[in-house]
Design a protein that fits this description.
about 25% strand, about 35% helix, about 240 residues, globular, Rossmann fold, two-stranded antiparallel ribbon
Length: about 240
Amino acid sequence: MNFNIEAVRAKINWTMAPGDPMFGGNMDHYGAVGASALKCIIGARLLADVEAPMSVLDFACANGRVTRWLKAAFPEAALHVADINPDWAAWSGKTFAAEHWLSTPDLRDVEAPRRFDQIWCGSLATHISPVQTTALIRKFASWLEPNGVAIVTMHGRRFVRNAIARTHAYFPDPLSIEPVLRDMAATGFGYAPHPGQDHGISAATSDWLIRSVIETGCRVVSFSEHAWDGHQDVLAFQNAPI
């Protein structure tokens, strides 16, 4: 696969959803995050030695920050988007001519309508518990076509360094991050829910994530630290023999 990121960028539908929470007013950065995701996907597919995908899923799609890049890069692929927010899923489905469906509060219950050659899931595992992250990885393993590739992003060592230095907006309360750091050091996975909510902040070691993939029977393609937007770690795995 030969990809020119700028050629893909020229084909993108830049329609923006009103009030998109992922857009902070900086269009250059918003576009760069999507480009970074596509680079991660292309790199993983090259390592997995597979051709361009014919079916693609953006799971936790929100308002299409990465979906728009997937649509432009793989125009021949059957594109699916899913989110727990029905408005986001519907908007992204309509805007990018994708099939849309809903996730569930408990990821152990979510079902996909088909299997996929490529799954992208950016910044969902960063906000859920170890039980839910394990369920997410197992679901993706079961949704992959033979030789299909899934990518999950996660907070890792760079996140920990930022947390210790209190240099990120995630950490307005110095005490809020302590359980994450403590449990990550003890078990490989740290999680702290936001008060009164069913999601929070998570971080995991490469060993924890890789072990979770191996337990599904899938092959780990790559693990790259802070490869997405210079911040989140990127785990790629394939439905192929180990």
